[in-house]
Amino acid sequence: MNYQQISDLESTYNSGGVGRRPVALVRGKGARLWDSEGREYIDCAAAHGWANVGHSHPKITAAIQAQLETLVAAPEAAYNDQRALWMQELAQVLQGSLNWPDCHIQPSNSGTEAIEAALKLARYLTGKTKIISTVRGFHGRTMGALSVTWNPKYKESFEPLIPGVQHVAYNNIEAMSGLLDNQTAAVVVEIVQGEGGVHAGTTDYFQALRRLCDERGALLIVDEIQTGVGRTGKWLACEHHQLSPDIIALAKSIGGGLPMGVTAWPKRIGSFKAGIHGSTFGGNPLACAASRAVIQVVAEEKLVERAAYLGGWLLDELQALPSKQIREVRGLGLMIGLELKGKVTPVLQTLAERGVWALPAGLNVLRLLPPLVIDKTDLEQVVTVMKEVLSA
After folding, report:
1. Which residues does 58 contact at the CB level (< 8 Å), separation at least 6?
2. Is 0.90 topped by the overall pTM?
3. Does residue 138 carry a catalytic annotation?
4. CB 3.0 to 4.6 Å from 246: which of 8, 79, 219, 252, for a disulfide?
5. Per residue in 171-189, pLDDT tens?
6. Is 273 considered catalytic here?
7. Distances from the Cα of 361 to the Cα of 85, 102, 151, 191, angstroms
8. 206 given a catalytic annotation
9. Which is the catalytic residue, given 43, 223, 246, 378?
């Protein structure tokens, strides 16, 4: 099918809730994408951050194929070998990254579901209802996750959302201290705000926030949905700040391309009562097999270290661009934002015409989230194209 056939057919049935670019992507391999007309792109979006190990990685594909022939879905009410092994392997990573002695793991199918489980757990364990999130924070589109998301454009059409949620300035411990009290169940925060413009908090802020939550009896929820699995040059972005949260949410790249969400927490804070929370497809053997392969690939190919090296190099190169269109370049690992002096959409369109597929993060921030397997030569080409486009 050509572009017109695909777009006409999909437009006949789609809900209209998501805007689409005039491109039909039909194939991906590694850090490359191809559209229906055969045009090739360097992928600097990783499908909104889920393709950390790249597209169609042979080990992920092999794990999925083998499990497809064995057992695709199994209810959480029954034990399963793939789920058990996946939990063990993921727990070992989390315990090392977060200094947890042990942990509980609640699987689901997406980041927004992982946040929902975190919010439910916080209210369940503390008996409190107040939740604090941050300005520019983005945590998902279901009613609970949307409530802790800040941007009004995502929320106004669906209000009233869940009660008891307040937003406070990000990376501002004084503002947080004025709002966080002993009636607070949890604080939800990102280490780097992705959708909010690629803004990173400081170590002083996160360490002070940890102390503040402890003092006032609130649980600290860290959203690692976009920053996790090596994206920022650490397995979890928390590690940059020696931060040990009470609850973390993972998704996107943890499933290797299959839908998966994870809510995890140390056993010391408690657990759900049997029957109070669950998911029909959460922790299905197919997704668990894919995620096990992701964990293996990240370790074997040293993708965390690769993200740290390539991200540092790319940040330096972009900060050196002599463009009057750029206000600031910021980021951590292979998660980089270029704040522009004008709107980002025309720049994204021109980049795509030149073979670079990138993302927005708001109206004027260009976001780069390339697969961690990307070759340095591809990033060199991206820098060359960026220089030409932003100098035009």
Report:
1. none
2. yes
3. yes
4. 219
5. 999 999 999 999 999 999 9
6. no
7. 36, 35, 12, 16
8. no
9. 223
